[in-house]
Amino acid sequence: MTLERINRLQLQIKPGQYFYVTDLINIRYLTGFTGSNAALLVSDSNAILATDSRYEIQAATQVPELPAVIGRNFPELLLSKLQKSEVLVEGANLSIDVYQKLVTSFEHQFSSSVGVIEALRVVKDDSEIELIMQACEISTKAYQDVIESVRVGQTEKFIRNALEHRMREYGADDIAFASIVASGPNSAIPHHEPTDRELQSGDFLKIDFGAKVDGYHADCTRTAVVGKPSDWQAELHSAVTSAQEAGRNTIQSGIQFTEVEKAVNQSLTDSGYREHFTHGLGHGVGLAIHEDPFFGRVEAAKIAPNTVITIEPGAYLKDKGGVRVEDTIVVNSEGYLNLTNLPYELLEL
C-alpha cells in the first residue's frame, strides 16, 4: 500500500523535482504514518519521512519501507542537503510566513501545487472502502438504537451524547465530526450546535452523525418527527426525500456531477422548495470528513468508479424547521452502493 501510493505520486514528479508534503492527512494517505508531527519529501525515485523523537519508534513500525530522519526543523532536515532544485509545496497547507521562510532560507525554486495528492485520494482502493463501510455500519447501528429510545423532554445534548457513546461502544475509534442534533425550529439551522433545548411533541429531530474507523469517516443524516407530523412537515420531508432519491437514481460511474445536481434541483423546484436548499449537495468522504470531490466545485468532471461521496439535499424553513436526508455511497460499475442504508420514511417518535 505505502509504496504503491507513493509511486502514483512519483509519476507526476519530474526528474530533479521534489514534492515537500506537510499535510498530515496526505502523509497518512501516502505512508500510513499517523503521528501528529511530520513532513515528507518525495522525488521521482525516492521518499523520506521526517518526524520528531516522540514518533521515532512509531515511524519505524508503521513505515518500515521508508527511511526517516528525526528532529524538529523539518525543512532543514529534508531540504538543506539538496542541490538547488524545484520544490513543490502544498500551498493550501502553508501560511504565508512559513512559505516566506522557506524562500529566504533555501536557494530552491519553490512553487505551490494544490490538490495533487487530494486528487489521488478521490478513487478509493478496496481497503479504504472496507473501512468506510465499517464506519457506516457502526454509525447506522448506533443511530437505530438511540432513535428508538428518544423521548419528549430529552435535550439535544443528551441525544448527541447517547449517540456518540453508542458509536464508540460499537467499535468506532472516534466520532467523524461533532454530531448535529437539532430539534424543533433549530432543525432549520443546517449546522446547528446541540443545546439544552428539550424535545417537544411536534418537533422535527434532525441528526447528522458519523463514526470514524482507522482514520476513515462515515456521514449520514436523517430527520424524524416527535409524534404525528403536521401537513407541512410531511410535505417538506417528502420533498427532500424525493429529491435525494432523484439524485441517487442518477448516480453512475462516468456521469457528470452537474447531472446529479440538476436532478436534485429539478425535484426540489417541482415541489416548490428549491429556494430553501441553501448548501452544497455533497462531498467526498475518506480520511477527511469533507474532501474532494465536492459537488458545485467540479463542474464538468465525471464521477469515477470507487469514488465515495455523500448525497445530502435539505430544505430549511426559518423559525419552523428543516429536513436533511444524507447518505454515504460508493460509486461502482452497477451504479452505487448505499453504505448508510437507513429507512427513508418519516419516522414518528
Commentary on this structure:
By secondary structure, this protein is α+β, with helices and mostly antiparallel strands. It folds into 2 domains: 2-121, Creatinase/prolidase N-terminal domain (Creatine Amidinohydrolase, Chain A, domain 1, 3-Layer(aba) Sandwich), CATH 3.40.350; 123-338, Alpha-Beta Complex (Creatine Amidinohydrolase). Helices cover 34% and strands 22% of the residues. The chain is built from 10 helices and 19 strands. It has helices at residues 2-10, 24-31, 56-62, 74-79, 96-105, 116-122, 126-147, 156-169, 231-250, 257-271; strands spanning 17-21, 38-42, 47-51, 68-70, 86-89, 109-112, 174-175, 180-183, 204-209, 211-213, 216-217, 220-225, 283-284, 291-294, 308-311, 314-317, 321-324, 327-332, 335-338. A 6-stranded mixed sheet has the order 4-3-2-1-5-6. Strands 7-10-11 form a 3-stranded antiparallel sheet. A 3-stranded antiparallel sheet has the order 8-9-12, covered by helices on one side. α7 packs across α8 and α9 packs antiparallel against α10. The longest helix has 22 residues, at 126-147. The mean pLDDT is 96.
User: How many helices in DSSP terms?
Assistant: 10
Helix share, percent: 25-40%
- What's the CATH class of the largest domain, please? Alpha Beta
> What ranges have pLDDT less than 50 throughout 5 or more consecutive residues?
none
CATH fold description of the largest domain: Creatine Amidinohydrolase
